[in-house]
Amino acid sequence: MDFNATKLFIAVVNAGSFSAASERISVPIATLSRKINELEQELKVQLLERSRQGVKPTYKGQQFFEQARLGVELLEDAHKSVTATHSLQGKLRLSIPPNFSLWWDLLIEFQQRYPDITVFCHSSERVVDLFGDSIDVALRFGDLHSDDVIAKLLMNLETVFVASPKLLADRGTPETLTEMAQLPVAAWESLNYGFFEWASGAEKVKYTPFFSTNHLQAIIHYALNGKAVAQLLDFSARPWLESGELIQLLPGIATQKIPLHLVYSRQKHPSALVRAYIDFCTEWIGKLA
């Protein structure tokens, strides 16, 4: 069986179309089509259903894809391990939440340690399909509700309430969540999700944001300019708190804790690059503790 043709077939299934696969792996569409036709003739079975919308594997094609993919990945890992001279080499495809600036520092240090690893980093609110989008590892906030991934808890992030000295001078400093809800609030909201409630112990307070957005810098901008109270991740607020441009509100009230996970697909054998990245993240986060 043609090993290279099998690799091309896997690439086409992952991409969902010949054109997308061609662009992703820099192989002409005509070559992809010809090699997969030859593979189908060799196996005496149709592997792909072709349409104007793209391609999808047949029942037999899906069986072949799932079994062949693991073998191909293992062979490629074995090849890299014996041909690499001093360091890991290859491309790592990652997904992180938007506006998560902490991770840019981590990735810079990761590539300093592994200079032969190139990184593609996708940043979006959308929860990516690790398998369909060919993402090796994703970083996700909050509780996970999927059995299709392997998750490693890295840390629990904390949030803080902040406001500018100007806003507090004009409106007063709140001493409870209820009082804070009377102030203008800048809050996070996406097109499909917005949850406007604070809780501390038995106290729960609903509020209506004066301004809401899915852009962290806009929320910080409103807070710095004295226009609104904001709830930020601790590390995002820290520079402004240290400079005095923002003041932490209700420091005695328990802040929200948000779990941060690294996730990767159960259906995909973790490569040497993925293992190196996960180990590095664990080490790097451990130094912050």
UniProtKB/TrEMBL annotation:
InterPro entries: LysR-type_TF_proteobact-type (IPR058163), LysR_HTH_N (IPR000847), LysR_subst-bd (IPR005119), WH-like_DNA-bd_sf (IPR036388), WH_DNA-bd_sf (IPR036390)
Pfam families reported for this sequence: HTH_1, LysR_substrate
Domain of life the protein comes from: Bacteria
Domain HTH lysR-type residue range list: 1-58
Record keywords, A-Z: DNA-binding, Transcription, Transcription regulation
Family recorded in the similarity comment: Belongs to the LysR transcriptional regulatory family.
Protein name, UniProt field: LysR family transcriptional regulator
